[in-house]
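User: Hello, can you help with two protein structures?

Assistant: Certainly.
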Amino acid sequence: MTDFAAAIGLVLVIEGAFYAAAPSLGKFMMRQGLAASDNQLRICGLAALAVGVGIVWLARS
C-alpha cells in the first residue's frame, strides 16, 4: 500500500508541475483530447499503460 500511495503522490507532483509551468499548454492538450475519437484515446491509453508497466517492471527488478 505504501508503494501505491507513493505512486499516486508522484502522479500528482508531475501533473501539478506541468500545470504550474505551462497552463496554456495544458488547456490546449485538453481541447485536443476532447476533439480526439474514442479509439484514438483508447490506443493512447493502452500505450501509456504499457509504457508505465514497463517502467515499473524495470524499476522494480
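That covers the first. Now for the second protein you mentioned:
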Amino acid sequence: MKALPVLALVFAAAVSGSWPAQAATDFSAAEQSVFMEDHLGSLRPPLTLHYVFRKSGTMEEAFDDKVDLVLTAQPDGSCCAASPQFFTGKRAMTLPPVEGAKGNPAILYFLERDIKEMQRLTKGQPNYFRKRIRMAVYQGATVRDTTLPYRGKPVAVKEFSITPYLDDPNRARFEKLANKSYVFLMSSAVPGGLYGIRTRIGGASAGDAPLMVEEMLIDGAGAAPKP
C-alpha cells in the first residue's frame, strides 16, 4: 500500500485511504510540518521507532501501552517501508503497512485510532472527524516554538495546537467532547521527526480534572506540555 506519497500530496489520503483531499499546492505551514516533511529521510533502516502511549482521565479506565514503527529499506536501499505495531495484547490494532514512507506514518496511525474512538464515543461518522481535523490544521493551528527534554538533553520542538470541534456547527451533537484539543510536537532532533502527539478533553469547568488525556511520545521524551 503506497499511502505516503499520496499523504504527502494531500495531507492525508490516510492510512485508510479516506482522508479528504485538497488542492495539491494549497497547504498551511502546519500541514507542511506535520504531514508533508520528509521525516524519515535521514534514517538508515532497518530500525524501529518506539513510542510510549498513555491514557488517563475520569471518563474511562487509564492504561499505558506502546507503539512501534518498524522501518525496513526499499528495494533500492532507501527509507522506508513502515509496519506498525500499535498496542500490545488484547489492545493490539491491525493497521496496514506503508511503502515508500517519507512523512512519519505514526502520526496518521494515531489519528485513525483517535477517530475510531470519537466514533465509538459519539456515534459520529469518521469522515466528519477527519474533515474537522484537516480544516483545523489547515486554517486554525496555533504554532509555538518550545524546548523539551529528549534523552536527558533539551531539543527544539515546534508545537502545533488545534481545537477542531470548538467552533463546529454541529457542536451540540458532541458537546461533551467539544473542547477536545490536539497538540502535535515536531522536532528534527528526534528520529522520525515526531516528538509526540497529545489530545485532551477538559472537564465541565476549568478546575475539573480532564475527562480524557491521550499522548504518544517518542521513547526517551519528557512529558508533553498541557495544551
